[in-house]
Amino acid sequence: MSLITVDIADLKTSADPDAVIVTYALGSCIAVIIYDSVRKVGGMIHYMLPMSETSPEKAKDRPAMFADTGIPLLFHTMYEMGCKKPDLVVKAAGGGALYDDHGHFAIGQRNYTSLRKMFWKAGVLIAAEDVGGSKSRTVRLFLATGRCTINSVGEETEL
Amino acid sequence: MIERNEILAGIKKLPAFSSTVVRLSSLVSDPDAGAGEFEAVVQPDPALTANLLRMANSAYFGLSRRIGSAREAITLLGVRRVFELGAMAAVDAVVPDTLPGYGIDASVFWSHSVAVAVIAERLSKERKLATPALTFTAGLLHDVGKLVISSFLADRVEALRSELASGELSLIACEQKLLGADHAQIGAELGAVWNLPEAVVRVMASHHAPEVVEQGRGDVLVDLVHAADCLAHSMGFGADVGGMLRHVDDAAIARLGLRHLDLEHVASRALPEIEGLSQFRSPKKGTSA
Predict the structure, then answer these.
(1) By C-alpha distance, which of B222, B208, B142 is closest to B170?
(2) Which of the 8 DSSP states describes residue B285?
(3) Under CATH, which architecture does the A2-158 domain have?
(4) Residues of chain A scoring pLDDT < 70
(5) A98 and B161: CB-CB below 8 Å?
(6) Where are the domains of chain A?
(7) Which domains does chain B have, with CATH numbers?
(8) Chain B contacts of A104, Cβ < 8 Å?
(9) Regarding predicted confidence, which is higher, B24 or B167?
(10) Which residue in chain A has the smallest CA separation from B167?
């Protein structure tokens, strides 16, 4: 088994059926997990912020930092690997929030809103999601089967 | 509950904090102190000098030639940066391999500390505040109380998990409930034992509950580190047993005048610096994800 780690503001794809793609410690960040069950190709992004207009120069450098530059890049990378849109299963996790009455730190919520808008426009359905709340999450995608798990404070759940 | 003498015993068990860095911390806040005085304090400390040179010569700074002395490091990187590197070496030296009570290892504690240090400085610049000279250091040291109480929390791990699972209390409130003390309080005691500057000790004591100091004004350093702590947790630096069960202090954020776009801008700019500086842990120690 090879472990492929997706860092913060990073995306990875793989067609190795023995691979597991993992990302750690999603706070307000969101992971979008895509799996093509026909070709056993998987991909994951760990984006940090909703909109690249915050820092256009960073978006050039690291498009996976932002939802609006990173998510399309993830889809395109998978299309270049031969994937077809109807075969893709798309999941999302993360977008947590601090106790924040006035929403100063509503980055998780803004990250999620950005994703929903993009998927709405592009006609992408979310097969499963574990979003919001006060959890910090670690996500794994097993390429052999497309199984996706979330670990949070020692507990593992299926996504 | 833990007794005061247990806490003091826990503090004594930690290695001593670098006295060189403590001396530098008063120099760095003194506008009259020059590079020469700075160098005179660093030079007699071979361990610190070696660490400084290791960091200054790393690819992160991309210097065109190899630095061989504290003087060169100060000339090329500046007094403040060299002091910050010294503070990083000093914190690195006292962090144990794991913090079992928080369910994290040294690398997570370390990257959170570095993240808060970097973000606090950048938030200050974003708001065009006169950044206090100790901002980075205060961010770096804000959580060291955790090094003392981690083992006490580890003894109560089941109770801690069930308190946290109820989602009603923040992590620091759970510490208070289970131990009768929390990492902020104990950090302040530790800071006093280590002779850290008062401004830094205030940050350790109040970073979860910034208060109005006078006539609606807060302690800027405390407010900055509080905001940086919240943003670091949002970004995923420091994910521990408490997840995101931490309070944002509205008044502190309002005093700093931070809007969500400021926070997002700072997050995007801070990330590469956090990643770069996080690699500066001493090579003898292990790393893990």
Answers:
(1) B208
(2) S
(3) 2-Layer Sandwich (3.30)
(4) none
(5) no
(6) 2-158
(7) 4-15+96-278 (1.10.3210.10)
(8) 248, 250, 253, 258-260, 263
(9) B24
(10) A134
